[in-house]
Each structure stands twice: as C-alpha cells, then as structure tokens.
Amino acid sequence: MPLADPPRPIVRLAFAAPLSTAAGLLLVTAFPAPALWPMAFPAVAMALVALAGRRVWSAVLVGFLFGAAFFSVNLLFTARYLGPIPWIALSVLESLLTAAFAVPIALAYRWMPRIAPGRVGRLVLLPALVAGLWTLREQIVGSWPYGGFPWGRIGVSQVNGPFAEVASWVGMSGLSFLVVVFCAMAIEFARSGRFRRPVGAVPALVVLVALLALPQFPTTDAGSLRVGAVQGNGPAGYFDQRARNAVLNAQLAASAPLLGQKMDVLLWPEGGVDSDPTRSQSTAAVLDELSRRLDAPLLISAVTERGPNLYNSSLLWTADGAPEQMYDKRHPVPFGEYVPDRAFWEPFAPDLIGLIGREYTPGTADPVVDIDGVVAGLAICFDVIYDDVVWDGASEGAEVYLFQTNNADFRGTDENLQQLAFARMRAIETARSVVNLSTVGTSQVIAPDGATRDELPVDAAGYMLDDVPLRTGLTPAVVIGPALKIVLGWGSLAGLAAAGAVLAFRGRTKKTPAPEGTGA
User: Fold this and answer.
1) First CA to last CA distance, the chain
2) How far apart, in whole angstroms, are the C-alpha atoms of residue 294 and residue 265?
3) CA dist., res. 457 & res. 434, Å (int)
4) What is the pLDDT of residue 515?
5) What's the confidence (pLDDT) of residue 325?
6) Facing residues of 329 across strands?
7) Is residue 386 a contact partner of residue 138, using CB atoms and an 8 Å limit?
8) Which residue of 2, 75, 98, 485 sits 20 to 30 Å from the alpha carbon of 22, by its own alpha carbon?
9) Are the beta carbons of 432 and 474 closer than 8 angstroms?
10) Could you report the per-residue pLDDT of 130-140, keeping only the tens digit for each?
C-alpha cells in the first residue's frame, strides 16, 4: 500500500505560535479563581490545532509557548512563598516537559493519517492517540522529577461543570482523556469538511453523550460522623512572626465555642499545633484537656520528630495523653518542605535554599485512621493532588475523607481555591464526603456529590459542625484507576511507537527493488 505524504500543518508557524500562547492563557481561566470550566474545550482545541502537522522543532516551540503561557499564570501563587525564583523555575520546568511531550502529539498527527487514512483512523484512532499522549504528559508532569507536581490537570478544571461525575468512573486522568479526545474528534470532523454528512460527527457525539449522561457511580449510605472542624486563622505561615504556640492558641480560641457540643471528632488543620506534642509535655497536656472536655478525640497535625527524621504528621489524639494513630505526609513538597539533592542545588541559589531549614521525610503509613469504628481517609495539604494517597485511603476502607492543609504561605492568591477544586473532585471521584480544613481558608464540608454543605471564609477564625455523610463501596475510578492510567498513557506511547514502526517498515518495503521475473 503506497504511503501518503505527511499531512501539512493546519496553520503556519507564524500563526501557530500566538495561537498556542493564547490557548495557554485561555486554559488558565478554566481553573480557579475564574473557574470557567467551558474554557478548557476551546483552549485544548486551539493547542491541538497549533500542533497538528508540525515537525519536531516547531512542535517543541509551540508546546513550550503553550506551557509557558499556562503555567506561568496558573502557578503564580508559588512566588508568594519564596519569591520569583521558585515560580520561574517551576514554570520553566513544566513548560519544558510540555514542550517535550508536544513532540509525540505532533508525530501522531503526522503518522496516523498515513497508516490509517480512512474515516475510522482520522475520526477515532487519531483523536484517541492524541488524547492518550496528552494524558501521558499530565502523568509525567505529575510524577517526575522528585515526585512531580500534578497541578493543572484538565480533569480538575471540570469540577464545576456537568461532566465532573464521570470522574467517579474513570478518575481525573480518564476525564482529562475524554475532554481532549472530544476536542480532537471535533477538530478532525471540521477538517474533513463533510458537514452535509453528519455521520462523521458520531464519534464526538458519542463522547459528549457519555460525558453528559453518565451519573456519579453510586455508593452505599453508611450513616454519618459528627465532625467539628476549626479554622484558627493563626500566624501559620513559614515566615510569619509568632510567639511560641501562637498557632495552637489561635486554634484553641476558635475551638472554644464547640465546648459542650456533641461530636465524634474534632479536626484541626495542617500545622494547627506548632510544637511537637509527642515531645512537649505542656502541649500534650493542653490537647489531653481539650479532648477530655469535648469527650471526643482530636485529629490534629504537627511536625513530629522521630530519631533523626522530621515528619509532617496527622495524629489522632485522645485524653489518654498520646496519639493513638498517626499518618505522615506521603508527598512532602520538594524545595518547600525539603530540598532534594541539596548539595547540587544550593550553589545555584544559596540564600534561597538556606531558607528551607527543615527536611521532612516522606511517610509510609496507610492514609487512614479509625475513629471509633469509622475509617477516615487522610491527606495533608498537597497530598490531595496525588492519586495514590486518595485511592489508597478508599481501598483501605475510608468512609469519609478528612483533609488537613495550611494555605497561610499563599494568602492573597488563588492557591487555596485551586487546591479546594482538587478536594471537591476527590469527593466526586470517590463518592465520599470530604472535610477540607485550612489554617486560614478556604475550608469546606463537601458532600459525596461535590456540593458544599458548609464553609468558612478566608482569613477568618471559625468552626464548622456537621453530621458528615459516610459511604462504603468503591467507585470504578478507585478500582481501575491505576490500570486505566497505564493503558491511556503508556498504551498511547506504545501505539505511537507501533505507528512509527509500521511507517518505517512500509518505507523500507517501498525502497526494496522487486525481484526479476515478477513483473513488478
């Protein structure tokens, strides 16, 4: 079968470069604070149009411009913590990874039409391959280097829209795939020019119907857990000037109205105790007394020291005077809570690296605690953006999630709202209630369907007290999520490699002269 010529780019590079930049900026608006979820669709479509048909180096340029435009704005909150250097470094890293993974997408657009030029190839196989490679890029960015930073995933942008419930079936990566595959299918239908033959729109319409029609996967009602959650609004920032136990005292003051109220557990945010209660007898005594007066355990958070290691820990504390159970943050933030390869990086920015004095050790415990027979899943701050922590909690029997976070270092930015979007999507994905509690806001009690049951405003002390619904049963997202990520991401890369191998084989066959006497 003769090979067709590689398809030409849809738009010239002179137009593709600004189009890709505009796509990145438009995608920012799909995430909080604007949270205009429909904007993800034209943004993705514009990015794909800019890439389609490109050669390698022009794809790198177009991909980098898209990544730089998106991440430099989406991650602007990181400049609030340690200044512009971390923001620039992280934005450039994410942009370079985006540029690198723009190449496989561009190759898919060049190769697939040559080996599968028919309607199924152009309208189904090519869009599926492109969407899988986009999803792979999200997975790589979210896992490498140093554990990655899975921020800005397309699936999360849909938390306020009508497609969010699909995440309970396919997870956030699966939702990203479906959004991108719909955009890619729509592009190919438009390129076909066969608007009078709507059969070409069927693949895109099937995906759209699935996005609209799939309800949230049902889980089983298992009663409720009465949770008190306190946002103390104390000086919890890394560089906040404060007296000893100032954050603890702020939490105690905001908890006072709950004394005498009936509850099953009192939840405090990440860093709500600013001294190690496992080593400070005075701090332990304060917590013992509070638990005794409430007649309920406390789920607190503090930096704990065990041997030479420091941990960002969640502790279930009772009036007996010691933590009954403990979970240590599984994903400490690189260059925030520890410095990987410090000896290598410190010469590049010695003053900046020197500010990060603590070196947190990653935890290894299961992210759950048992509260008088109710299993609660845990995540500390950015743990919530990593699939493994949340899915492991559900697999270990979590009936509700209690997320502890400290957003004090990002006051005045939309970081807390972006993180809250992850928390809401986790509720939908697992069909579990979530109590997302911050030191300074935004804190919410989120129902299993993602609806807000209660909330506290930013930069204000207060409490929530709610009978939080419990659920049992695992959603497909939890059960098949890990395998689905492999199939969508790495399976697409394997598919691209197979397409390249077919092209290479056909090219060699075409160049081989026919044997004498065959009449060829």
Assistant:
1) 14
2) 9
3) 17
4) 55
5) 94
6) none
7) no
8) 485
9) no
10) 999 999 999 99
Structural element, H or E, at residue 227 = strand 220-231
Residue 409 φ/ψ, nearest 5 degrees: -75, -10
Q: Which helix H or strand E contains 419, and what residues bound it?
A: helix 415-430
Q: What are phi and psi of 387, to 5 degrees?
A: -60, -40
How far, rounded to the nearest angstrom, does the alpha carbon of residue 247 sit from its chain's CA centroid? 28
Q: SS3 breakdown of the chain: % helix, strand, coil, rounded to 5?
A: 50, 15, 35
Query: Chain centroid to CA 356: how far?
Result: 24
The dihedral sign for the CA sequence 438, 441, 445, 448:
negative
Q: Quick one: pLDDT at residue 36?
A: 98
Looking only at the bridges linking them, the beta strands covering 323-328 and 368-371 are unpaired
Tokens describing residue 32: 């909080």
Angle at 208 between CA 204 and CA 211, to 5 degrees: 140
Q: What are the tens digits of pLDDT across the range 34-77?
A: 999 999 999 999 999 999 999 999 999 999 999 999 999 999 99
The model's pTM: 0.94
205: left (phi over 0), alpha (psi -120 to 50) or beta: alpha
Q: Give the integer Cα–Cα distance in Å for 481 and 167.
A: 10
- Residues 292, 298 contacting (CB under 8 angstroms): no
Tens digits of per-residue pLDDT, 4-17?
667 889 999 999 99
Burial class (CB in 10 A: 0-12, 13-18, 19+), 120: exposed
**Dist. CA 1–CA 519, nearest whole Å:** 17
Residue 518: its pLDDT value, please?
Answer: 42
Residue 519, classed as helix, strand or coil, is coil
Nearest partner of 67 among 100, 42, 34, 109, judged by Cα: 100
Residues 6+ apart with CB under 8 A from 209: none
In 3-state terms, what secondary structure has residue 323?
Answer: strand
Residue type at 332 in one-letter notation: P
Question: What is the DSSP-derived secondary structure letter of residue 218?
Answer: P
